[in-house]
Amino acid sequence: QAKRDPKEKCVRFHDTMRLRRDENLALKKDMERAIEEDEFALYFQPIALTASSETVSAEALIRWLHPEKGLVPPDQFIPLAEDTGLINRIGAWVCRSVAQAQVRFRKRGFDISISMNVSPWQLSDPEFTALMMDLPDLYGCDPTKIILEITENVVLGEIPDALTALNELKIIGYSIVIDDFGTGYSNLAYLYNYPIDGIKIDRIFINDISNGGAIVKLILSLADALGATVVAEGVETIEQRDWLTENGCDRFQGYLYSKPVPEDRFLGFLESQAHIPTK
Ligand code: C2E
Ligand code: MG
Ligand code: MG
Ligand code: MG
């Protein structure tokens, strides 16, 4: 094998870094335009009861309808939005859009809860809590039917004023759920000290059910002890759903039931169901 010049390797490393930086700068500019031009959309994925497969709520998931690239999934821009602070503006769009969607759903006869994803960094933005407080007056939405999903891709304790913000949001009537539970910086102390209503079990643990599901059982008993609701994410097989039913997990979400779909398709899906409970 030919010996490589270490200097050459170094140059290549720096080229890669520069490329990455240039790409990120371009993506950031692109996102700024997308905010101005209103290029985002919400898709909805139903959350259903494991025992009866009845839809009980929906998760709103952002999509970027890019004029050239087509549909861009959140994993490709939310992390950079978080790094650059643009998440506050995108997050505000999500808040307003979820509030308006809830009112539209209600008018169509589906008074269901909607979950929205909140980046932990938004919790230290005073404009975020102020907007959440204004949403009911602005749009006529019901905060008791809006669930905030907070991912733990960062230590919540290190986010300035996160606890204060969560307590304020609870007082207004919103519910708080920890997303991707078990994969991030999940810390048992949060569950006691933070006003948490529920847990979403990350799909890596649901995937593991075929190996016995020890972690899922553990999370279920933890949630039970705390009086927290549980949703299993990423359920793709009937076997997984049935295992969840047998082990006392009431709610699930996943491709087995439905992928995230645009609003009109989501409402069509609800309309095609025989019976929709209201809670
Ligand atoms: P998440 O909140 O954990 O959302 C669940 C993700 O799993 C979604 O990906 C969904 O499409 C996907 N999923 C659902 N069921 C299945 C399944 O059965 N199998 C598999 N393989 N995947 C499934 P999506 O929509 O690409 O979103 C990715 C992440 O982006 C979300 O993860 C969330 O963390 C973030 N995100 C989405 N929308 C927003 C938003 O409005 N604001 C913020 N801050 N983050 C968002
Ligand atoms: Mg989520
Ligand atoms: Mg999740
Ligand atoms: Mg997840």
Automatic annotation (TrEMBL):
Superkingdom classification of source: Bacteria
Domain EAL positions: 24-274
Identification of the protein by name: Diguanylate cyclase (GGDEF) domain protein
